[in-house]
Design goal:
The structure is a single chain. By secondary structure, this protein is an alpha/beta fold. It is 39% helix and 14% strand. The chain is built from 14 helices and nine strands. Strands 7-6-5-8-9 form a five-stranded parallel beta sheet. Strands 2-1-3-4 form a four-stranded parallel beta sheet. Strand 3, helix 6 and strand 4 form a beta-alpha-beta unit. The protein is globular. The two termini are 31 Å apart.
């Protein structure tokens, strides 16, 4: 199992059986491969797509609550013709003291691919090392959320260019300013997204409450890339220059006390009044769920992309699953058709 930076590139055959635990495994060509495949799957007839992974099984393993990521992976697998079983920590042998590694080894006996959400940073890599089946990181603590970053970049391309242009992600995002707002310390979505965007000619602007700034472990990676980055205290003075706002909630579950959370929540609110000072084309993204950081009067704006973002995510995850599972052989297809 390869976890090295750039180990997932444009050779589709080499993706089969691989795990994705962090975005640095993807090089630019690998990112373009996933997103162009997402576009291809999006345009194919449903019955044709349903034949791609018929007979394959996904284990959806969530040790933390989730609506979108869990349902997105389930829907993606079902749309590819596969099936899904779900495991929650509350009803698993983790309650009896079983290690994550043993859980991963056990589930690999039943499934062809594992999707893992876990509260501890690094948990996905531990599971991937233990499992003999591909393992996809669906969020590990405050670490990373690589499949969210894939769908976020896909959303940026769809919103700005209507798809993936012939020049790939680089052409779609060239010269764009992307502002990340909210809890950047605990937000694994922005950690992965900033690292992924660091490969491109973009300007990253960070707006966070005091104490919730983007961690050095992320900014150091961005510094090594071609993107520029800067941190500011206020959103209003920079919003007019932004081509996209990526808004995140202040994560109550990551705070040591309710009092600390209460002092920080609501620090930044994106509402219709603020957006009147932005470009009409400025895409508004959010990984959801939201609390109070995007007012509901933004929902009707044509550039409010956060619900379209979920649909884009379905196709991005379909593409990823299709790549790591590989195409079934002709013999597999014949067996499935005959019900064998």
């Amino acid at each position: 199992m390869a976890f090295a930076p750039g180990s997932l590139s444009d050779d589709a055959a080499a993706w089969k059986g691989q795990s994705l635990v962090g975005v640095q495994q993807l090089d630019e060509a690998g990112l373009n491969l996933v997103l162009t495949h997402a576009e291809r799957l999006r345009g194919q007839p449903r019955d044709k797509v349903l034949a791609r992974q018929r007979g394959k099984i996904l284990a959806n393993v969530f040790y933390e609550p989730s609506t979108r990521t869990s349902c997105s992976f389930q829907a993606a697998m079902l749309r590819l013709g596969g099936s899904v079983f779900c495991v929650a920590e509350a009803t698993s042998s983790a309650k009896k003291g079983e290690t994550l590694e043993d859980t991963a080894r056990s589930l690999a006996c039943y499934a062809d691919v594992l999707v893992l959400r876990h509260p501890e940073s690094g948990a996905a890599k531990r599971a991937a090392v233990a499992s003999r089946k591909p393992t996809l990181n669906a969020g590990d603590g405050v670490g990373e959320h690589p499949t969210q970053a894939l769908l976020d970049v896909y959303t940026l391309c769809r919103e700005m260019c209507g798809g993936i242009p012939s020049g790939g992600v680089r052409a779609a995002l060239a010269g764009k300013t992307i502002c990340m707002v909210g809890d950047l310390k605990h937000g694994r979505t922005v950690h992965s997204l900033a690292k992924l965007l660091s490969k491109f000619d973009v300007a990253l602007v960070y707006v966070a409450p005091a104490g919730l700034e983007m961690p050095a472990a992320v900014t150091d990676v961005v510094e090594e890339g071609t993107a520029t980055q800067r941190a500011v205290d206020a959103l209003a003075p920079v919003v007019a220059d932004c081509d996209a706002l990526y808004v995140t909630r202040v994560q109550r579950e990551r705070f040591e006390s309710q009092a600390l959370y209460e002092r920080t929540k609501g620090s930044y609110v994106v509402d219709a009044a603020l957006m009147r000072t932005a470009k009409a084309t400025c895409a508004i993204l959010h990984p959801l769920p939201r609390v109070d950081e995007i007012a509901t009067d933004v929902d009707a704006l044509p550039n409010a992309a956060y619900f379209r973002q979920m649909e884009h995510g379905l196709y991005a995850r379909m593409a990823l699953l299709d790549l790591v599972l590989g195409r079934p052989s002709m013999l597999d297809g014949l067996r499935a058709a005959l019900g064998l």
